[in-house]
Model the fold of this input.
Amino acid sequence: MFQNKVKGCIQFMLVITCVCFVLGLKPAPENTGLINTVNYFRENAGQFGRVSLELKNAVAALDRKHPETITTAKEALKKSRMSYKKIEFFMNYFFESSSLIYNRPAKVEVEEPYIEYQEPSGFQVMEAMLFDKDPVADKESLIAQADVVASSAADLAALLYQFEADDKQILESVRLELIRVITLGITGYDAPELKSGIQEAEQSVVAISAVMQPFLRKKSPEGEKLSALINETVGYLKSHPGFDDFNRMEFLTGFALPMQEQLGGFIHAAGMDLNSKSAINYGAKNIFSPDALTVQAFYEQGGRIKEKAALGKKLFFEQSLSGNLKRNCASCHHPEKYFTDGLKTSLAFDGKSKVVRNAPTLFYAGFQYAQFWDGRAKNLQEQVKAVISNPLEMNGDHQLVIAAIKNKTAYRQDFSAAFPETGTDPVTMDHLADALAAYVMGLAPRNSAFDRFIEGDKKAMTAAQVKGFNLFMGKAQCGSCHFAPLFNGLIPPFYRLTEYEILGTPGNDNFKRLRPGTDKGRYDFFPIRYYEGAFKTPIVRNAARTAPYMHNGAFKSLKKLVEFYNQGGGAGLGLDVPMQSLSAKPLNLTARETREIIKFMQSLTDKPG
Ligand code: HEC
Ligand code: HEC
Done:
């Protein structure tokens, strides 16, 4: 019945087109791609529905006496995933909540602030069960999961009932799909055990190609170039299907990023730009360009940004912000140490005792939706106010701080210049926090060897560093949490959320005599068990200069850190971490691969100043 309505809807559009034609009006030019896309979706949703039934039958046939049934079920899962990738662009863009039925991380997701739990469901939790020691033991849950997938898949066309969209949205949906391929697909984010990410990426690009066809029909040199790039990208993926040895750097610099650039240019030239969902600046060349994420998504850029940042820089070194007039932000965030202090945990206000956590770098700190290791401040302004009044850190009384700043004439001028609209009394705590935020927001040099390499300077990275990048984004799974392009917790492709994870970080780095960590992380802020020991995924850029590592500074070196991941985090090392979201399975990295990953991280060191 629903199908008929959609058909009706499309027939109606055809009628409108004809009426327009008769009246001498042009059909709305912006919707040439919509009908094609809806048809493509309908056809492939039908296909997906059939494949999902096969998956359901395959898990129902699981039998301990016939181990080949497990292989068959894994194959069926892979087939379903591949089929889903053809409609992923459409589902994730137009029906995001329905899309979660199929493909979502195999961990409990907490929706704040309502603290609703989203139990893991769909392919990824099935994958975890099928790759467990005894998948047949989970047969009932597998059948239940497959049932949910198959029954919703059977009904996908119903989503088209009264569906409305335009070509701009269609184009945005595929441009985001390409970013999904670049940042998630090839990292194994959604199929870590099946390792089908590359073959799945091919399906995604095939879908993009199908959607683009009507737009490319009108011949133009730019369109032809885009067509060629799409075909070459599909060709590369097809001829390099292996996950572990996939050369991600070659794929990105030679195919995916040029395709992204060309697609962006094509959409722009057609006047079809639309940014309805993401923090991405589509005007940037590609997702690795320094301006790929819009500052405005993270920080309200009102007022005079330059003057604010200059004032913020002064305040960063201003001791009047502290209760004893002896400390400033730089006491713990030394610019020459990439804005850290090199200590396990920072020296407290009294200059003797220690605060409980490690001082993180401030480079790129603005590009997150949560500040502090546990994300308890939602933006830089909040964070600044908290640090100033924290008795262990700066122990400053907000009113006294403002009074002290007001007493300095030079500051009053700086505040007036930065906040001219506020008249006679510009020196306020809000303005002070805003100015410091503006300064921190600007700490984003993006001039590392990696950045230069991806921009086209083929000499900027060594061969070992490139291998390290491929491992980071592939076999070692680092890129499935430290997301490109910043390699922090900003989740692609929308970049609207910052991720928390549970690694089971220990209290020390002697793996033979490991002490469990004691910091409960986000749990102290949101006391739910899925947050016990959860910390914000921090940035990896400049990590080579910001030892020691982790919220508690437990790891003295990157070598220790990679070894920790290689052994499966805290749980892999034998600690009791029931909610660990990092896979506890060893990564099987060789000593050489470990070195290459470290070398890649060294290529992420910026030249400050
Ligand atoms: C006593 C040392 C100390 C001082 C002084 C200090 N910080 Fe920090 N800073 C830290 C520590 C430790 C953390 C991590 C705390 C946590 O996560 O609970 C932190 C966290 C931050 C963060 C969050 C970064 C992120 O990625 O989550 C920002 C931003 C920051 N500080 C900026 C500042 C500014 C601006 C000032 C001056 C107003 C300042 N800090 C003063 C030690 C200090
Ligand atoms: C499951 C998600 C996840 C995966 C996979 C992951 N990380 Fe992390 N990473 C985190 C979180 C969360 C932290 C902070 C943990 C803490 O403070 O206890 C972290 C911390 C780090 C830090 C320390 C940063 C600092 O400033 O202290 C580095 C460096 C790092 N990871 C690199 C890597 C590398 C290299 C890999 C791959 C071998 C990797 N990560 C895989 C989530 C992840």
